[in-house]
Design goal:
By secondary structure, this protein is of the alpha+beta class. The protein has a domain of 106 residues: S-adenosylmethionine decarboxylase, CATH 3.60.90.10. It has a 6-stranded antiparallel β-sheet, covered by helices on one side. The relative contact order is 0.17.
């Protein structure tokens, strides 16, 4: 009895539902299609889609995996895209990481609940309007700010060429031959 009284004093009761508990009211269909999809454009052609990087600042719905998955489904539904599969996981440091596989292309998802930051990389989604995608994701995650980038500045890294001694030794005779010719 004392155990139940202590729970009741904390606002928890084992015998009835509490109004303080969060309920998931996601109204998005969760069916995932597994049938093969015909690819309309060959990879590398102009119609095969684009690569976009969408950053959301001040985002919500990052407290748990189900909320983030629900928000991602809402954004995809607003864009008229049906996901074949969505997989989101919580990493050891508390961040969320996942992917949404579409018929053509995919979305990679990285989120930091502590900072309210979401980074979505859109790859190969032909016919996707970048601004519509940004607004759909911003609305679904209740983001304060959103930005689109076509390239990531951190992708370009200039490092000095480092070669092992064996590689340098093999390349040295070829360089001498090329200079002599």
């Amino acid at each position: 009895m004392a155990y139940n009284d202590a729970l009741f004093q904390l606002g928890m009761d084992l015998t009835r539902s509490s109004t303080a508990q969060k309920e998931d009211h996601c109204e998005v269909a969760s069916d995932v299609r597994n049938e093969p999809v015909a690819v309309t454009a060959a990879p590398g052609t102009k119609g095969s889609g684009r690569n976009l990087f969408i950053d959301l600042h001040g985002a919500s719905w990052l407290g748990d995996v189900k909320s983030a998955e629900c928000a991602l489904k809402v954004a995809l539904a607003a864009l008229g895209k049906q996901p074949r599969a969505i997989e989101i996981s919580r990493l050891a440091d508390g961040t969320l990481s996942g992917v949404a596989v579409l018929g053509i292309g995919h979305l990679s998802f990285q989120a930091s609940p502590r900072n309210g930051f979401v980074a979505v990389d859109v790859r190969g989604c032909a016919g996707l309007d970048p601004h519509a995608a940004m607004f759909a994701l911003a609305d679904a995650f209740s983001a304060r700010e959103a930005a689109i980038q076509k390239t990531r500045a951190s992708d370009v890294v200039f490092l000095p060429a480092v070669q092992s001694e064996k590689v340098r030794a093999k390349a040295a005779p070829r360089r001498r031959e090329a200079k002599a010719a």
